[in-house]
Amino acid sequence: MSEQGEEMRTLEEQQEMEDKVISPEKAEEAKLKARYPHLGAKPGGSDFLRKRLQKGPKYFDSGDYNMAKAKMKNKQLPSAPTEKTEITGDHIPTPQDLPQRKTSIVASKLAV
Amino acid sequence: MAGPGGDMQWCFSQVKGAIDDDVAEADIISTVEFNHTGELLATGDKGGRVVIFQQEVENKNLPQFRSEYNVYSTFQSHEPEFDYLKSLEIEEKINKIRWLPQKNAAQFLLSTNDKTIKLWKISERDKRPEGYNLKEEDGRYRDPNTITALRVPVLIPMDLMVEASPRRVFSNAHTYHINSVSVNSDDETYLSADDLRINLWNLEITDRSFNIVDIKPANMEELTEVITAAEFHPHQCNTFVYSSSKGTIRLCDMRASALCDKHSKLFEEPENPSNRSFFSEIISSISDVKFSHNGRYLMTRDYLSVKIWDLNMENRPVETYQVHEYLRNKLCSLYENDCIFDKFECCWNGNDSVVMTGSYNNFFRMFERGQRRDATLEASRENSKPLQVLKPRKVCTGGKRKKDEISVDSLDFNKKILHTAWHPQDNIIAVATTNNLYIFQDKVN
């Protein structure tokens, strides 16, 4: 009896090993599930696709968007006027505080 | 490619772009496209700019040097916008550029970002009028009372000026993000495709567009697949295809009905259910679809392979080429760093005998269909001496790494070649790394 049990166990182990050998994908999947046990059962399902449909961060409104853009531009151009860099988060910005929407167009480096 | 017996060998020709490693996001190249003669090569970038290069006339005295591509025109095609209703940014990134066949002296191209398609006219001006009656040469108006005689203005030559002007703006037709535009062989219409819909436009009419495919489910909770790419057949103006995130391709005939939700043909390779894993659907998502020039075949690119389909056979591809099969063992980390979602494009050579696609570590792959030969080449500044022949590269998957091989774990996954283009007639290819454009040509023996 116990011999038969041992045989069955080794058969199962063999099947597992074969799975790993046949399908590297399944091995990778096991790794992923080990790291993220709460990962949804349906990977290609709605959540995943819906994230794709709405790409990019969502802003509160256009003022929020313009402030974020200004922050990014100020990071890239340290020569920007300093008054404008301080208008963040302390008070509601007025139109005069916001930088101009159209900035100088920088030519592509491919066109040099 | 670089085999014995005089096979095709690729040489470095030119590289465009900055050398420094600090890449500004705006400089990331997002599309590359030759025009129909191959004389012009257009690139689009994340900053919404288009740069067009023109092939200079060959120097007949030096036969070993091919013509070079030099800057012809550059312009800002799209600007960032803000969608006030959804509070979302509309990126200025140029997703696709498609050239129109040339009909007169000017060149036309369609460029698109996520929401708006624009038709640009690129025209040359090499003469200017001189000898106006009412204007001085500097533009100031003359007092008519001082004019005693009349003359006929003449056109005199001037330095070539290339002007780009937007002739049509096709907007407000896409709720989701545009991934493809394709000009029809009828020279009158074109299609634009977003994640869930495909629209048909007339090139002349901007305020009206016909929806020809709509896969949006009534209940968004039931969404299972999105459109990833679409293209018109090169000769049959009634036929187009679109690919999906589930790895299927649908061929539609616009003569069958106004709304082509029902496909005429469905190309799908059956999957072995025992092989199915968490990653199966993600890596089967088709990132690019291209008809062959002769219109008989379709090429699709999914994460790990390139497949060639015969339009007459729907149940499986006729050829499958592994681009980087060694990545199948790395899917977990590629999912974590989002690389598994990278969208690689693919292209045919002029006579449909070779296909090309990009990979990581600035490698790109070529598959010679008839010869069953393939090559891995690298676009890098280290191999950029004039006419330097590219050495084939090899990725080592096993334990023992040979000299000159690179191991999978040493690959740089930030250096991806997503966009490549092949000259329509000659063996000249354009390969885009993150922010540089490489031009290679085959060695003229």
UniProtKB/TrEMBL annotation, chain A:
Q: Where in the cell is it found?
A: Cytoplasm
Write out the GO MF terms. protein phosphatase inhibitor activity
Region (Disordered) spans which residues? 1-22, 72-112
UniProt keywords (A-Z) are: Cell cycle, Cell division, Cytoplasm, Mitosis, Phosphoprotein, Protein phosphatase inhibitor
- Mind telling me which InterPro entries this protein's record contains? Endosulphine
Instruction: State any GO CC term.
Output: cytoplasm
Keyword Cell division in record: yes
Checking Pfam families in the record gives: Endosulfine (PF04667)
Q: Does the record's keyword annotation contain Plastid?
A: no
Task: Please list the GO biological process terms of this entry.
Answer: cell division
Q: What does this protein do?
A: Protein phosphatase inhibitor that specifically inhibits protein phosphatase 2A (PP2A) during mitosis.
According to its UniProt record, which protein family does this protein belong to? Belongs to the endosulfine family.
Name used for this protein in its record:
cAMP-regulated phosphoprotein 19a
From TrEMBL, chain B:
Q: Enumerate the InterPro entries for this protein.
A: PP2A_PR55, PP2A_PR55_CS, WD40/YVTN_repeat-like_dom_sf, WD40_repeat_dom_sf, WD40_rpt
Answer yes or no on keyword Repeat: yes
SMART domains, alphabetically?
A: WD40
Q: Name one GO cellular component term.
A: protein phosphatase type 2A complex
What's a BP term from Gene Ontology annotated to this protein? blood vessel lumenization
Taxonomy, superkingdom: Eukaryota
Keyword Transcription regulation appears in the UniProt entry: no
Q: Which GO terms describe its molecular function?
A: protein phosphatase regulator activity
Entry-linked Pfam families: WD40 (PF00400)
Which keywords appear in this protein's UniProt record, sorted alphabetically?
Repeat, WD repeat
Give the similarity note.
Belongs to the phosphatase 2A regulatory subunit B family.
Assembly with partners or alone: PP2A consists of a common heterodimeric core enzyme, composed of a 36 kDa catalytic subunit (subunit C) and a 65 kDa constant regulatory subunit (PR65 or subunit A), that associates with a variety of regulatory subunits.
Name this polypeptide is given: Serine/threonine-protein phosphatase 2A 55 kDa regulatory subunit B
